[in-house]
Amino acid sequence: MRRRALLLPALAALAAGCDTAQSVTGGDGSHGEMFNGLFAIFLIVTLLISFLVFGFMLAAIFRRHRPHRDVPGEEAESRDRGFRPALIAWVALVAAGLTLLTSASYLTDRAMQGEARPERLIEIEITANQWWWDVRYQSREPSQTIRTANELHLPVGMPARVTLKSNDVIHSFWVPNLAGKQDLIPGRRTDALLIPKRMGVYRAQCAEFCGAQHAHMALDVTVESWHDFNAWRRAQLRPAPPPATPLAAAGFAYVTSRECASCHNISGTPASGQVAPDLTHLASRRSIGAGTFPMTRGHLYAWIADPQGAKPGNNMPMVGLEADELHAIVAYLETLK
Ligand code: CUA
Fold it and tell me: Which residue of 40, 160, 232, 278 has the lowest C-beta tally within 10 Å?
Protein backbone atom coordinates (compact mmCIF):
# COMPACT_ATOMS: atom_id res chain seq x y z
CA MET A 1 0.00 0.00 0.00
CA ARG A 2 2.78 2.40 0.99
CA ARG A 3 4.71 1.57 -2.13
CA ARG A 4 1.67 2.35 -4.24
CA ALA A 5 1.22 5.66 -2.41
CA LEU A 6 4.74 6.60 -3.49
CA LEU A 7 4.48 5.20 -7.00
CA LEU A 8 1.27 6.97 -8.08
CA PRO A 9 2.49 10.57 -7.56
CA ALA A 10 5.78 9.64 -9.23
CA LEU A 11 3.95 8.30 -12.29
CA ALA A 12 1.63 11.31 -12.35
CA ALA A 13 4.64 13.67 -12.22
CA LEU A 14 6.28 11.73 -15.05
CA ALA A 15 3.15 11.88 -17.20
CA ALA A 16 2.71 15.61 -16.49
CA GLY A 17 6.38 16.21 -17.29
CA CYS A 18 5.74 14.95 -20.81
CA ASP A 19 3.47 17.83 -21.74
CA THR A 20 4.59 21.02 -20.05
CA ALA A 21 6.04 24.35 -21.11
CA GLN A 22 9.53 23.05 -20.46
CA SER A 23 9.90 19.42 -21.40
CA VAL A 24 12.58 17.51 -23.29
CA THR A 25 10.02 14.93 -24.37
CA GLY A 26 7.46 17.49 -25.59
CA GLY A 27 8.45 17.11 -29.26
CA ASP A 28 6.72 20.40 -30.14
CA GLY A 29 9.36 21.26 -32.72
CA SER A 30 10.72 19.40 -35.69
CA HIS A 31 14.09 18.65 -34.05
CA GLY A 32 12.41 17.76 -30.77
CA GLU A 33 10.27 15.23 -32.65
CA MET A 34 13.35 13.67 -34.27
CA PHE A 35 15.16 13.49 -30.92
CA ASN A 36 12.14 11.68 -29.48
CA GLY A 37 12.19 9.12 -32.32
CA LEU A 38 15.92 8.53 -31.83
CA PHE A 39 15.46 8.24 -28.07
CA ALA A 40 12.72 5.59 -28.56
CA ILE A 41 15.01 3.49 -30.80
CA PHE A 42 17.90 3.73 -28.30
CA LEU A 43 15.59 2.87 -25.42
CA ILE A 44 14.14 -0.23 -27.12
CA VAL A 45 17.51 -1.60 -28.28
CA THR A 46 19.31 -0.99 -24.99
CA LEU A 47 16.39 -2.39 -22.94
CA LEU A 48 16.32 -5.53 -25.08
CA ILE A 49 20.07 -6.09 -24.69
CA SER A 50 19.88 -5.36 -20.95
CA PHE A 51 17.09 -7.92 -20.45
CA LEU A 52 19.09 -10.53 -22.33
CA VAL A 53 22.29 -9.79 -20.37
CA PHE A 54 20.48 -9.96 -17.02
CA GLY A 55 18.60 -13.09 -18.13
CA PHE A 56 21.79 -14.92 -19.08
CA MET A 57 23.53 -13.70 -15.92
CA LEU A 58 20.76 -15.08 -13.72
CA ALA A 59 20.75 -18.34 -15.69
CA ALA A 60 24.52 -18.62 -15.15
CA ILE A 61 24.19 -17.97 -11.40
CA PHE A 62 21.55 -20.66 -10.95
CA ARG A 63 23.45 -23.07 -13.13
CA ARG A 64 26.57 -22.72 -10.98
CA HIS A 65 24.63 -23.49 -7.84
CA ARG A 66 23.32 -26.76 -9.21
CA PRO A 67 24.78 -29.76 -7.36
CA HIS A 68 27.95 -30.97 -8.99
CA ARG A 69 27.68 -34.12 -11.04
CA ASP A 70 30.39 -35.97 -12.79
CA VAL A 71 30.01 -35.53 -16.51
CA PRO A 72 31.64 -38.04 -18.77
CA GLY A 73 34.28 -36.42 -21.03
CA GLU A 74 32.41 -37.00 -24.28
CA GLU A 75 29.20 -35.43 -23.01
CA ALA A 76 31.05 -32.33 -21.73
CA GLU A 77 32.71 -31.87 -25.11
CA SER A 78 29.41 -32.03 -27.01
CA ARG A 79 27.93 -29.49 -24.57
CA ASP A 80 30.84 -27.09 -25.24
CA ARG A 81 30.20 -27.44 -28.95
CA GLY A 82 26.54 -26.60 -28.34
CA PHE A 83 27.63 -23.22 -26.90
CA ARG A 84 29.31 -22.13 -30.08
CA PRO A 85 26.16 -21.30 -32.12
CA ALA A 86 24.75 -19.45 -29.09
CA LEU A 87 27.94 -17.39 -28.83
CA ILE A 88 27.89 -16.59 -32.56
CA ALA A 89 24.21 -15.58 -32.32
CA TRP A 90 25.00 -13.31 -29.37
CA VAL A 91 27.89 -11.56 -31.15
CA ALA A 92 25.66 -11.11 -34.23
CA LEU A 93 22.88 -9.63 -32.08
CA VAL A 94 25.24 -7.13 -30.43
CA ALA A 95 26.70 -6.16 -33.83
CA ALA A 96 23.20 -5.72 -35.29
CA GLY A 97 22.15 -3.59 -32.29
CA LEU A 98 25.21 -1.34 -32.59
CA THR A 99 24.71 -0.99 -36.35
CA LEU A 100 21.07 -0.05 -35.84
CA LEU A 101 21.96 2.61 -33.22
CA THR A 102 24.76 4.06 -35.35
CA SER A 103 22.59 4.20 -38.50
CA ALA A 104 19.62 5.73 -36.64
CA SER A 105 21.89 8.38 -35.12
CA TYR A 106 23.51 9.14 -38.48
CA LEU A 107 20.19 9.36 -40.36
CA THR A 108 18.63 11.62 -37.72
CA ASP A 109 21.66 13.90 -37.90
CA ARG A 110 21.37 14.01 -41.72
CA ALA A 111 17.65 14.76 -41.51
CA MET A 112 18.35 17.68 -39.14
CA GLN A 113 21.08 18.99 -41.43
CA GLY A 114 18.68 18.69 -44.38
CA GLU A 115 16.35 21.11 -42.63
CA ALA A 116 19.13 23.58 -41.91
CA ARG A 117 18.83 25.31 -45.31
CA PRO A 118 15.18 26.25 -45.69
CA GLU A 119 14.34 28.91 -48.26
CA ARG A 120 11.98 31.03 -46.19
CA LEU A 121 12.84 31.69 -42.61
CA ILE A 122 12.74 34.21 -39.85
CA GLU A 123 16.12 35.62 -38.84
CA ILE A 124 16.56 36.41 -35.18
CA GLU A 125 19.68 37.49 -33.32
CA ILE A 126 19.94 36.77 -29.63
CA THR A 127 22.66 38.23 -27.42
CA ALA A 128 23.05 36.68 -24.00
CA ASN A 129 23.93 38.85 -21.01
CA GLN A 130 24.25 38.07 -17.33
CA TRP A 131 21.25 37.34 -16.91
CA TRP A 132 18.91 38.27 -19.71
CA TRP A 133 18.38 37.77 -23.44
CA ASP A 134 18.57 40.66 -25.93
CA VAL A 135 16.38 39.69 -28.89
CA ARG A 136 16.42 41.29 -32.36
CA TYR A 137 14.25 40.26 -35.30
CA GLN A 138 16.32 41.04 -38.37
CA SER A 139 15.05 42.46 -41.61
CA ARG A 140 16.64 43.88 -44.74
CA GLU A 141 14.75 47.07 -44.03
CA PRO A 142 16.07 48.70 -40.86
CA SER A 143 12.60 50.10 -40.11
CA GLN A 144 11.27 46.54 -39.90
CA THR A 145 13.69 45.24 -37.26
CA ILE A 146 12.28 44.58 -33.82
CA ARG A 147 14.10 44.67 -30.53
CA THR A 148 12.69 43.00 -27.45
CA ALA A 149 14.00 41.06 -24.46
CA ASN A 150 13.47 37.69 -22.80
CA GLU A 151 10.78 36.57 -25.21
CA LEU A 152 10.39 35.02 -28.65
CA HIS A 153 7.30 34.93 -30.81
CA LEU A 154 7.34 32.35 -33.59
CA PRO A 155 4.73 31.48 -36.21
CA VAL A 156 3.87 27.76 -36.15
CA GLY A 157 5.48 25.70 -38.93
CA MET A 158 7.86 28.46 -40.04
CA PRO A 159 11.59 27.86 -39.52
CA ALA A 160 13.49 30.48 -37.53
CA ARG A 161 17.24 30.76 -37.57
CA VAL A 162 18.55 32.15 -34.31
CA THR A 163 22.05 33.63 -34.41
CA LEU A 164 23.59 33.50 -30.96
CA LYS A 165 26.17 35.79 -29.35
CA SER A 166 27.30 36.50 -25.82
CA ASN A 167 28.34 39.77 -24.21
CA ASP A 168 30.09 38.29 -21.20
CA VAL A 169 30.42 34.60 -20.30
CA ILE A 170 29.34 31.33 -21.92
CA HIS A 171 25.57 30.79 -21.86
CA SER A 172 23.50 28.11 -23.55
CA PHE A 173 20.26 28.62 -25.49
CA TRP A 174 17.79 25.83 -24.93
CA VAL A 175 14.10 25.53 -25.79
CA PRO A 176 13.71 21.88 -24.74
CA ASN A 177 10.27 21.46 -26.34
CA LEU A 178 11.57 22.58 -29.73
CA ALA A 179 15.23 21.64 -30.19
CA GLY A 180 18.57 20.83 -28.58
CA LYS A 181 21.00 23.16 -26.83
CA GLN A 182 23.39 25.61 -28.45
CA ASP A 183 26.13 27.45 -26.59
CA LEU A 184 26.63 31.22 -26.82
CA ILE A 185 30.35 31.87 -26.68
CA PRO A 186 31.93 35.34 -26.26
CA GLY A 187 33.61 36.43 -29.49
CA ARG A 188 31.95 33.73 -31.59
CA ARG A 189 28.68 33.41 -33.50
CA THR A 190 26.74 30.18 -33.31
CA ASP A 191 23.23 29.45 -34.50
CA ALA A 192 20.23 27.25 -33.89
CA LEU A 193 17.27 26.35 -36.07
CA LEU A 194 13.80 26.27 -34.52
CA ILE A 195 10.91 24.72 -36.44
CA PRO A 196 7.89 24.82 -34.12
CA LYS A 197 5.18 22.27 -34.95
CA ARG A 198 2.60 23.01 -32.28
CA MET A 199 1.19 26.25 -30.93
CA GLY A 200 1.77 26.96 -27.27
CA VAL A 201 3.84 28.86 -24.76
CA TYR A 202 7.16 27.26 -23.95
CA ARG A 203 9.90 28.10 -21.52
CA ALA A 204 13.48 28.31 -22.68
CA GLN A 205 16.23 28.24 -20.11
CA CYS A 206 19.92 29.10 -20.11
CA ALA A 207 21.56 25.70 -19.86
CA GLU A 208 25.12 26.65 -18.96
CA PHE A 209 25.99 27.82 -15.46
CA CYS A 210 26.73 31.52 -15.93
CA GLY A 211 26.74 33.02 -12.47
CA ALA A 212 24.54 33.66 -9.44
CA GLN A 213 21.29 34.20 -11.37
CA HIS A 214 21.78 31.46 -13.97
CA ALA A 215 18.51 29.84 -12.89
CA HIS A 216 16.70 33.15 -13.48
CA MET A 217 17.70 33.38 -17.11
CA ALA A 218 14.63 32.15 -18.91
CA LEU A 219 12.95 33.14 -22.16
CA ASP A 220 9.22 32.91 -22.93
CA VAL A 221 8.62 31.34 -26.35
CA THR A 222 5.15 31.88 -27.81
CA VAL A 223 4.35 29.76 -30.86
CA GLU A 224 1.25 31.15 -32.55
CA SER A 225 -0.60 31.31 -35.85
CA TRP A 226 0.85 33.33 -38.72
CA HIS A 227 -1.95 35.86 -38.23
CA ASP A 228 -1.26 36.32 -34.51
CA PHE A 229 2.48 36.50 -35.13
CA ASN A 230 1.99 39.29 -37.67
CA ALA A 231 -0.28 41.17 -35.29
CA TRP A 232 2.44 40.90 -32.61
CA ARG A 233 5.12 42.02 -35.09
CA ARG A 234 3.10 45.05 -36.18
CA ALA A 235 2.49 46.04 -32.55
CA GLN A 236 6.21 45.72 -31.75
CA LEU A 237 7.13 47.94 -34.69
CA ARG A 238 5.10 50.81 -33.32
CA PRO A 239 6.85 53.36 -31.07
CA ALA A 240 5.75 53.64 -27.45
CA PRO A 241 2.37 55.38 -27.03
CA PRO A 242 2.43 58.82 -25.38
CA PRO A 243 1.32 58.81 -21.73
CA ALA A 244 -2.45 59.27 -21.38
CA THR A 245 -2.86 60.24 -17.71
CA PRO A 246 -1.12 62.90 -15.57
CA LEU A 247 0.39 60.15 -13.40
CA ALA A 248 1.76 58.30 -16.45
CA ALA A 249 3.04 61.63 -17.81
CA ALA A 250 4.97 62.17 -14.57
CA GLY A 251 6.42 58.66 -14.94
CA PHE A 252 7.32 59.38 -18.56
CA ALA A 253 9.15 62.56 -17.50
CA TYR A 254 11.13 60.66 -14.87
CA VAL A 255 11.99 57.60 -17.00
CA THR A 256 13.08 59.58 -20.05
CA SER A 257 15.16 62.22 -18.24
CA ARG A 258 16.78 60.45 -15.29
CA GLU A 259 18.88 57.31 -14.62
CA CYS A 260 16.59 54.87 -16.50
CA ALA A 261 17.20 56.49 -19.90
CA SER A 262 20.95 55.95 -19.89
CA CYS A 263 20.54 52.13 -19.92
CA HIS A 264 17.07 51.44 -21.34
CA ASN A 265 15.62 52.24 -24.74
CA ILE A 266 11.99 53.22 -25.30
CA SER A 267 11.40 53.85 -29.01
CA GLY A 268 9.77 57.19 -29.80
CA THR A 269 11.04 58.78 -26.58
CA PRO A 270 14.37 60.36 -25.54
CA ALA A 271 15.25 57.15 -23.60
CA SER A 272 17.81 55.49 -25.84
CA GLY A 273 20.18 53.46 -23.65
CA GLN A 274 21.31 50.21 -25.24
CA VAL A 275 22.91 48.18 -22.45
CA ALA A 276 19.73 47.04 -20.68
CA PRO A 277 16.50 45.39 -21.90
CA ASP A 278 14.44 47.43 -24.38
CA LEU A 279 11.29 48.68 -22.63
CA THR A 280 9.26 49.90 -25.63
CA HIS A 281 6.64 47.14 -25.23
CA LEU A 282 7.55 45.94 -21.76
CA ALA A 283 3.95 45.52 -20.56
CA SER A 284 3.12 43.17 -23.45
CA ARG A 285 5.60 40.57 -22.15
CA ARG A 286 4.75 37.64 -19.95
CA SER A 287 7.49 38.06 -17.37
CA ILE A 288 9.91 40.45 -15.66
CA GLY A 289 13.63 39.82 -15.09
CA ALA A 290 14.03 37.02 -17.68
CA GLY A 291 11.29 34.79 -16.32
CA THR A 292 11.95 35.66 -12.66
CA PHE A 293 8.42 37.02 -12.02
CA PRO A 294 5.14 37.14 -13.92
CA MET A 295 4.31 40.54 -15.42
CA THR A 296 2.02 42.03 -12.78
CA ARG A 297 1.71 45.46 -11.22
CA GLY A 298 2.89 44.14 -7.85
CA HIS A 299 6.03 42.61 -9.32
CA LEU A 300 6.75 45.80 -11.31
CA TYR A 301 6.63 47.76 -8.06
CA ALA A 302 8.88 45.25 -6.31
CA TRP A 303 11.38 45.22 -9.17
CA ILE A 304 11.68 49.00 -9.57
CA ALA A 305 11.72 49.74 -5.84
CA ASP A 306 14.49 47.23 -5.14
CA PRO A 307 16.02 45.49 -8.19
CA GLN A 308 18.77 43.94 -6.07
CA GLY A 309 16.26 42.45 -3.66
CA ALA A 310 14.24 41.05 -6.58
CA LYS A 311 17.21 39.51 -8.44
CA PRO A 312 20.45 39.94 -6.48
CA GLY A 313 23.53 40.65 -8.59
CA ASN A 314 21.79 41.95 -11.70
CA ASN A 315 23.09 45.18 -13.27
CA MET A 316 20.16 47.42 -12.38
CA PRO A 317 21.10 49.69 -9.45
CA MET A 318 18.71 50.78 -6.74
CA VAL A 319 17.81 54.38 -7.52
CA GLY A 320 16.13 55.33 -4.25
CA LEU A 321 12.74 56.58 -5.42
CA GLU A 322 10.15 58.57 -3.52
CA ALA A 323 6.74 56.90 -3.27
CA ASP A 324 5.10 59.30 -5.77
CA GLU A 325 7.94 58.72 -8.25
CA LEU A 326 7.53 54.95 -7.92
CA HIS A 327 3.75 55.18 -8.51
CA ALA A 328 4.30 57.38 -11.56
CA ILE A 329 6.98 55.12 -13.10
CA VAL A 330 4.84 52.00 -12.68
CA ALA A 331 1.80 53.81 -14.12
CA TYR A 332 3.86 54.79 -17.19
CA LEU A 333 5.51 51.39 -17.69
CA GLU A 334 2.08 49.75 -17.61
CA THR A 335 1.09 51.76 -20.69
CA LEU A 336 3.98 50.26 -22.72
CA LYS A 337 1.86 47.52 -24.29
CU1 CUA B 1 23.14 32.26 -18.77
CU2 CUA B 1 23.13 30.36 -17.37
Answer: 40
Average pLDDT estimate for 189-210: 93
184 CA to centre of ligand 1 in angstroms: 9
Q: How far apart are CA 87 and CA 259, in angstroms?
A: 77
> How much is the CA Rg of the chain, to the nearest whole Å?
28
Beta bridge partners of 203: 220
Which protein residues are within 6 Å of ligand 1, measured from CB?
128, 131, 171, 206, 208-210, 214, 217
Mean pLDDT for the chain? 88
DSSP state of 169: S
What residue owns the CA closest to ligand 1's atom 1? 171
Q: How many distinct helices (H) and strands (E) make up the chain?
A: 9, 12
Report the SS3 class of residue 265. strand
Atom of ligand 1 nearest to the CA of 209: 2
Q: How far is the CA of 126 from the centre of ligand 1 (A)?
A: 13
CA of 310 relative to ligand 1 center, distance in Å: 17
Please give the pLDDT value at position 140: 87
What are the φ and ψ backbone dihedral angles of 21, each rounded to 5 degrees? -70, -20
Instruction: Identify the burial level of 306 via C-beta atoms within 10 angstroms of its C-beta, where 0-12 means exposed, 13-18 middle and 19 or more buried.
Output: middle
Query: Could you tell me the distance, in angstroms and rounded to a whole number, from the CA of residue 178 to the centre of ligand 1?
Result: 19
Q: With pLDDT > 90 as the criterion, what percentage of the chain qualifies?
A: 67
